[in-house]
Amino acid sequence: MQISLKAGSRRIKEQDAWAKELFPTVHERLKQAAETLPPDSPAQPFVDALTELVQAQADATGFVVLHR
Question: Whole-prediction pTM value?
């Protein structure tokens, strides 16, 4: 049981490190893609909501927590 707990803890730390490294790049790509979308696109409300959500996450912690 202790081995499983340690392995789980290690995986979570690895996932956090991966997310911290990757998030800024993905966040920038999302912003660039959102800027290329025509303003009258039917997807615009979804893109706005997604961009707002990701920006809030960036402001709060700077990365997406994957395991929670």
Answer: 0.60
